[in-house]
TrEMBL record:
<protein>
    <submittedName>
        <fullName>4-coumarate--CoA ligase</fullName>
    </submittedName>
</protein>
<dbReference type="InterPro" id="IPR025110">
    <property type="entry name" value="AMP-bd_C"/>
</dbReference>
<dbReference type="InterPro" id="IPR045851">
    <property type="entry name" value="AMP-bd_C_sf"/>
</dbReference>
<dbReference type="GO" id="GO:0005777">
    <property type="term" value="C:peroxisome"/>
</dbReference>
<dbReference type="InterPro" id="IPR020845">
    <property type="entry name" value="AMP-binding_CS"/>
</dbReference>
<dbReference type="GO" id="GO:0046949">
    <property type="term" value="P:fatty-acyl-CoA biosynthetic process"/>
</dbReference>
<feature type="domain" description="AMP-binding enzyme C-terminal">
    <location>
        <begin position="491"/>
        <end position="565"/>
    </location>
</feature>
<feature type="domain" description="AMP-dependent synthetase/ligase">
    <location>
        <begin position="75"/>
        <end position="440"/>
    </location>
</feature>
<dbReference type="InterPro" id="IPR042099">
    <property type="entry name" value="ANL_N_sf"/>
</dbReference>
<dbReference type="Pfam" id="PF13193">
    <property type="entry name" value="AMP-binding_C"/>
</dbReference>
<dbReference type="InterPro" id="IPR000873">
    <property type="entry name" value="AMP-dep_synth/lig_dom"/>
</dbReference>
<dbReference type="Pfam" id="PF00501">
    <property type="entry name" value="AMP-binding"/>
</dbReference>
<keyword id="KW-0436">Ligase</keyword>
<dbReference type="GO" id="GO:0004467">
    <property type="term" value="F:long-chain fatty acid-CoA ligase activity"/>
</dbReference>
<keyword id="KW-0576">Peroxisome</keyword>
Amino acid sequence: MASSRFILLAQCCTRSSSVAVKRPLVAASASHPHTIRSFSTGGAEDYIVKSAESIEPFQKSNYTENLLIDSHHWSHRVALECTLTKKATTYGRLRDQVARWGGYLRKLGLGKGDVVAIVGPNVNETSPVVLGAGAIGVVMAAINPTYTPAEIADQLSDSNAKLVVAFSPLEPVIRAALTICKVDIPIVGMGVPADTGIPMVSDIFDDDRIPFADAIDVSGSDPLSILYSSGTTGKPKGVVISHEAASINLAMLLHPSTLFPGLLDREGPQNNFLMLLPMFHVGGLFGVHAISIHKGVRLVNYAKFDPKSFLRVLEDYQISVLHLVPSLLNFLVSSPQCDAKVLQYVKSILCGSAPMSNSGLTKLKEKVGRPIMFQQAYGMTETMFVTMDPINEEKVGWCGKLMPGVQAKVVDVSDPSKNLPPNIDGELIIKTKSQMSGYLNNAEATAQAIDADGWLHTGDVGHYDQEGYFKIVDRTKDLIKVKGFQVSPSEIEEVLLQVPGIQDVSVTGVPHDRLGEAPRAYIVAKAPPSKKSIEEFLSSRLSENKQLVGGIVFVDALPRNSTGKVVKKQLQQMKPRGD
């Protein structure tokens, strides 16, 4: 199953006892917040783990309305600030931009169920474009801006997009993609001014001839967004997220057992979150962005990582909460320029893609020089957030306990009908109202992922303990996690097999200090082409994260089992060819 998994450290920062108006959440129970619920031996529900906490749904069905429901309380506060353009947007202005963008889409004839694609880094326009679409029932398809024209064309075709909103410098890439997929749809630029005459989002926001559009009532099952998540069987699949699923996920994150309380204080100092995770990533769109906008946080949009500017941004923008991937955490630990002064405003650190080691965590705490909050969590594109450490509980290396309203079980990999007891590894199976509606245009893959009873197969191997903590130890699929993003080995293999001379190939991930994991190709070829020619062939067809940074190894044959499947665990022990 395709998935973009994230294992996170730390969530949110300050606290207060005040509660937001119309906050649709129930209080945490005084008892232990997560329990293992078992039934009679041999029963169908043996060893099903359920959160003891529950949430109540928002009163509105429209996700945009739920996200902005309290924003009128802090209209004067800065909602968005961009490190690239140096521009800021208040919450009052954000609400106007959301309504104006909805009006613009209606002017174009777009409405409920139509799809608009967005391709670009984190800039201030991204948020109102996403929320304005959702407000009137338009579906937002988020596409990775580092993709090649061919990759973007695949997703524009799959989503049947009627409009593309793109970072202006990407206009040539978008036009090339539209040529490939043979469609003629409008392009609107964002971020920095375009010199080609295409409309700009910023100008549309300022055009008072366009009437504001009010949010419409939607069904909870209506699609809100499409996030593309890589799969082991080839091209990325479109994960369809409904308004209800996104709203339930938001309610989970706001629950008192998971939310650090200072975000509820309307009168206290405003917190500053760094928006480093991109909006096409589930942790960015439905994690960092969702919490920040709902709770009146200043969200600092950071378009692209640069070592010098990154440290400067932490200090200059007084960042209080960080959401990072392991390579960036390692950078903070190892950089001599990163010290207590740079980190003086940080209250909480969130690490995506993999848990931080005890040694790394200790070194980082020493650098900070004061108490700092850490939480761990687990989720994936298809489910959003699943587990998280309750407040004031820390168990390094684990993924936390089930979020409110989530059920889970660990099943025998060879016999999925058999639920396993604590401390035995198996595949993690999830059921939650925040999970995806399904894969776009792919009923077969949806049926493989979600069974008849609504349980979603994560493809991750792990276990839980007697306290209800979960740990991920492996994955049944072979996705490679590069800088926190899933890369499909089979997609790279398919391209490599087009190289003249290559007879057989298998791609796997290898540890990499900077990227977390990097793709490495094991190639069978009688007369091997040069490594340089292979790299050049790949670079012209696939995006940066799919390049063979992990290396190219020529071998005599690939290790295969009796059914012909490559045994990838044996690849790294293989010796290169002698010639």
